[in-house]
Amino acid sequence: MYLSIFPHEKGDHLINQIGISLKVGFANYGNKSKLNGYNDGNESAEPWRELSSVGHNGFYWLAILDSPPKPHNNIWMHHHRKFVIDSWNRKNFNHTVNVIALDGKSDTHKSFGKKFISYVDGQWQKISDVPVDYYLPDEWYTVTFTRTALYYEYAIEGRFKNAGQTIPVPLQGAGLCKSRKG
Q1: Fewer Cβ within 10 Å of end Cβ, the chain: N or C?
Q2: Angle CA(153)–CA(15)–CA(177) in degrees, nearest 5?
Q3: Is the confidence at residue 18, as pLDDT, over 60?
């Protein structure tokens, strides 16, 4: 699903208030096996990177981007995402729920874009890609995101491995996400 919040084609002004609510369910990406959910182990990240894909896989629950999400590669996505709820399966992390916002003041990596600030242990921290919790396969989750002129907030409702029913997160600290000038 794509929802444009840009009232002008150039996207210079965002709509003052939006609210998004969606259902995400029955996800089961990756596992603890050597193949991490892949078929035969020959899958690669090409043409974007000359690496095996087997060590990593995942999906976006919700991504707020600064440009329309036309078909692009993953490197493009890493440079244009501003707020993300995703699941990224890798070595010791499977079925993760990651909540990250752009650290606009960080340097830009050519493959991964700017660094992210993670929501962990009830607060925003300048660490990347640490799960807030873990989703359970065969469950439905409701994701809501609200933006007003004063704040952002989101919540994920459903059954999680550690948190129980809801992960609510205020984003009033979103000022950390603004890009530096110049």
Answers
A1: C
A2: 50
A3: yes
CA angle 112, 60, 142 (to 5 degrees): 145
Nearest to 85, CA basis, from 17, 152, 6? 152
3-state secondary structure 115-129: CEEEEECCEEECCCC
For residue 105, report the phi and psi dihedrals to the nearest 5 degrees.
-95, -5
Tell me how far the alpha carbon of residue 170 is from its chain's centroid: 16
CA distance 146 to 20: 6
Q: Which of the pair, 160 or 45, is modelled with greater confidence? A: 160
The answer to pTM > 0.85 is no
The per-residue pLDDT for 15 is 61
Write the CA distances from 70 to 3, 65, 102, 142, integer angstroms: 12, 11, 20, 25
All residues at 6 or more sequence positions from 158 whose CB lies less than 8 Å from its CB, including other chains? 135, 136, 139, 140, 141, 142, 165
Among 45, 84, 39, 94, which Cα is nearest to 62's? 84
Name the 3-class secondary structure at 32: coil
Q: Measured between alpha carbons, how far is 58 from 46 in angstroms, rounded to an integer?
A: 16
Is 50 exceeded by the pLDDT of residue 6?
Answer: no
pLDDT tens digits, residue range 59-82? 888 888 888 877 777 778 877 888
